[in-house]
Amino acid sequence: MGTITNEARIDRRSFLTGAGLLASVGLAGMAWGCAPQAGSDSNSGNSATTDTAQTQTEPPAQIDETLDCDIVVVGAGGSGLAAVVQASELGASVVCIESQNGPGGNLNGVEGCFGIGSKMQTELGINVDPGATIRSELTASQFRASGLGYVDLVHASGENINWLIEQGVQFEGVDADKGDPAKGDPLVFHRFANRGTGDYVPPMVAKAEANGVEFRYQTKGEQLIVDNDVVAGVYASTSDGMTLQINAKSVIIATGGFADNAEYMAEMSIDVEQIHKGGYPGHDGDGHRMAVNAGAVSTLNSTALLAAFYVNGTPGYYENGVFAFLIGVAAPYSIWVNENGERYVNEDFTGANIMLMSLPYRQNKNNFIIMDQPMMDIYLNGSAEGQKQLEDGIAEGSIFVADSIDALAQAIGAEAATLANTVERYNGFAAAGSDQDFGKSPEVLMPLAQAPYYAINPILEINTTIGSIKTDRNFHALNSKDTPIEGLYVVGVEGAMLWSNVYTINVPGGCNANNVNSGRVAARDAVSKL
Questions:
Q1: I need a surface site. Which of 105, 215, 227, 465 has the fewest CB within 10 A?
Q2: What per-residue confidence (pLDDT) applies to 63?
Q3: What is the signed CA dihedral for 336, 338, 340, 346, rounded to 10 degrees?
Q4: Distance of alpha carbon 38 from alpha carbon 51, whole angstroms
């Protein structure tokens, strides 16, 4: 297997014009002539197709530095780090480029990893049926997820945990995360003591560097090198305006989704000006764009979201925000109405899957969670901090309070008669113990009857997108004929075929388990072809 070589170009000529200038101000994608075009990679149906010959652009006019290696990994997040450690462990020469000034990406905030059959579980006497887990996930996806993908992931998950431990990753224990073991929820969540930023990223980077991996930070993948339909490397730009050509026998894209890309989000009918961005920076869709421009099939129109609720003027979920995220779960007795004051869902629906919150929400122009004072008292449970956040939200104008339903309607801009009819109809269902519109469980049917009344106006907090490039079992990117694109792998959230439209978070740590598994599988396959 080859060694990394480095050839610096001394003559930069007038590089600070053209591509170099654009790179220096963060517009490097335009210099390559391959910025994403509206509608270019999403058609009707389950996926879009793109022809290599039609989309592959010309190489940059000036190359400042050339690197040669066996495998180049684009992105140093959870899946990218798994890929570089696995590939280098098997003897490949590896270069990893990362657009940010350090490694980890969203993995820095991750709390643990799913696994079945790990040594930790064996030592604790924990035995979980993998088939039941796979069936549950396929059912939750309405069988749109890859059954073979789940078989591969679940049956490899325990060994993947063992491998992480061998690399120095630290776990403090195994639990059910937000599940309840007393109700049969399995103990499958291998929890980090200090999130990914302390227990996963540092040891994985250290192991990779010890194996000879070369990391290049603040280096952004711009365009794949394609030779006769074979991917043979990547062109990249640096923060100081240089252009790199990295020649490799395989490219593994691990760029972490497109949650920061306004155009791609718009294709999902999400306006980035109307959301709160969670997660870590750097997920601007470059990996998706490069893969599609090289002929890969886009599945953007069925991408899932790792999303929560956020209320302006109050702290976010990871800041102990009372009105963030869990309000969509912990207040099933409230009612949800749209901008017209119409109720549109059974509010206990999130009990099946927290991530379902964003789906009915996204059907409306605006959304409000309505409570009366007894409901709010139950929700706050005497918390002084919760009361303060309520007052802050009211001051911010994201939580409305009124002494009557008519006044509340006026405050939120809804037709008073419509909201009054909604509340009257709902109160009738509560009195009868039967929600004849949406079938909410009688146990959480509670009338809105005592002023003051509250209307909480949440917005979406989006942490990452999940699934946007079609891949096979080895995480090869597939073209429009379902044929693997030679030399190109897409791993992590972008190459995931396990979730469609909604992330089934009920299996805790599943997304991170896919990060580890996809990175390892792609790396092993790439090394086998050297």
A1: 227
A2: 95
A3: -40
A4: 16
Query: What token pair was written down for 249?
Result: 């026998």
Report how far residue 195's alpha carbon sits from residue 512's, in angstroms, rounded to the nearest whole number.
12
**Within 10 Å of residue 269's Cβ, how many Cβ atoms?**
8
Q: In what order do the strands lie in the sheet with 459-466?
A: 276-277, 459-466, 304-310
- Count CB-CB contacts under 10 A for residue 391: 14
CA distances from 225 to 235, 236, 382, 484 (A): 7, 10, 60, 16
Dist. CA 424–CA 417, nearest whole Å: 10
Per-10-residue mean pLDDT of the chain, 530 residues long, equals 44 26 27 31 36 58 96 98 98 98 94 97 96 92 93 98 98 91 91 93 98 98 95 97 97 96 90 85 94 96 91 88 87 96 95 84 93 97 96 97 98 97 98 97 96 96 93 98 98 95 86 97 98
DSSP string, 203-242: HHHHHHHHTTPEEEESEEEEEEEEETTEEEEEEEEETTS-
The CA angle 224-226-230, to the nearest 5 degrees, is 120
* Bond prior to 452 in cis (omega within 30° of 0): yes
- Dmax over Cα atoms in the chain, in whole Å? 81
The pLDDT assigned to 315 comes to: 92
CA-based nearest residue to 295, from 74, 40, 56, 106: 56
Nearest Cα to Cα of residue 515 among 20, 153, 150, 122: 153
Q: How far apart are CA 64 and CA 12, in angstroms?
A: 6
Distance (Å, rounded) from C-alpha 458 to C-alpha 317? 12
Q: Which residues contact 102 (CB under 8 A, 6 or more apart)?
A: 217
Handedness of CA 22, 24, 25, 27 (dihedral sign): positive
> For residue 255, what are its two tokens?
């760029």
Q: Is 312-457 a domain of CATH 3.90.226.10?
A: no
CA distance 32 to 54: 15
Asked if residue 476 lies in contact with residue 302, where contact means CB atoms within 8 angstroms, the answer is: no
The confidence score (pLDDT) of residue 274 equals 85
For residue 428, give the nearest of 452, 445, 414, 416 by alpha carbon.
Answer: 445
- In this structure, what DSSP letter does residue 172 have? -
Q: What pLDDT is recorded for position 147? A: 95
CATH 3.50.50.60 applies to domain 1-6+38-307+463-530: yes
Cα–Cα distances (Å) from 162 to 102, 124, 166, 224, 458, in that order, read 26, 14, 6, 34, 40
Locus of tokens 């394609």 = 226
pLDDT of residue 472: 97
Q: Domain coordinates of the chain in residue numbers?
A: 1-6+38-307+463-530, 312-457
